[in-house]
Each structure stands twice: as C-alpha cells, then as structure tokens.
Amino acid sequence: MKKQIISLMTALFALLCILTLTACGSNAAAPQSSAPASPQETPVKNDVKDLKGKKILIAYFSRTGENYQVGNITKGNTHIVADMIAKETGGTLFEIRPSRPYPVSYKETTEIAKKELSQGARPELAEKVSDFARYDVIFLGYPIWWNDLPMPVYTFLESYDFSGRTIIPFVTSAGDVLSGKENTLPTYAKGASVAKGIGIEGKRAQQQPRSVEPQIHEWLKGLGII
Fold it and tell me: Is the pTM of this model over 0.85?
C-alpha cells in the first residue's frame, strides 16, 4: 500500500512538472512585437490638379558642414532636392535659416537638436518671406531630425497665415521615407491643407542626384503640378 501511495505521488509530481514546463514554454514562445507602428500616409488633397498655375514657394531647411553618411558638404541634401523642384516648377526658393547657425560638427548639432526638441524650442529665423500672401502652394523641405522636423521649421510654420494654402512636404533622411510627422503640419500652419509628400535618401541626393531627378519629376506629375 505504501509503495502504491509513493508511486501515485511520483506520478502526480511528474504530471505537475510537465504542465509547468508546458506553460512556461508557451509564454516564452509568445511573439513580442517591438516594431513601432507604421506612420500613416500623408493625406492627399482631394483635387490636386487645381494646383496647376498657382504661385509656388519652395521653403526649405538644409544644413551644410559635417553630415551623416556624406561627410563635410557645402550644399545641404535638402537644398539639392529643393533646387530640383524649383527647376521643374519655376517656384521661388526660400531658405529657412536660424539666426544662430548650427555648429559644423555633426555630433554637436545632434545634441543641440535633441535639446531643442525636448524643450519645444522655436529658434529665431534670420529672415522672413517677402509677401508671403501671394503664394498658394508651399513646398516644405527639411531633414528628419530625431524622427521630427527641425525646430526652425516649426518657427517658419507658425510665422504665417496658411489659410487656403497647400503644403507639400519633401524630406531627406537615411532612407526614402517620410516620418509621419507631416500629418501634423496643419496643427502649426493654421488653415493649411497637406498634399502627398515625398521622402528622399539624403546620401543619394548628395552623391547621385541624377537618380533622384526622375523620382521628383514623377512625383510632381502625380500631384498635377507639371
């Protein structure tokens, strides 16, 4: 009888171990999703063809000096793309420049940019657009800094009345992507609508601009601008 009780207890203990290991195994194997949610696509203006014949401003923020992947440059990645858009559309170029330039050093600039982002800073700009009211369409160019717009671009957006105007974003970064932040532009540019933007790899714009030109052309064609 005693042997039967011991055998029964041994069997129960073994069964408990199996159940415990099975439960632990299920938990360990459960998928853990750590990937960030995909940003929503930039909202497209319902009737982009009405952009034809409109007065166009190409406002861009671009940085020279030491840059990620491309070393020291004398013309910023976003500036290069802005020139392509101006060539295709005949729009007026305007550089968004802070009164106090960022350092030449890439590392120093990233540290300042991170601090400005955390503070929601609005750096003073060196100049304003002359007769902003005459423009109907504003192409807005900037690099992606810390997954956001550089803070001087927010200063620009909050400095004018965008009522009835269309913003078309173009950005440069480590890839041909948009960050999703372009969806929030009307929050700062009061009264504006946003048409479909484009993301261009900064390194490619800097080192292989001819590979970017057809992409810009097709994008503008799709918008109904050309």
Answer: no
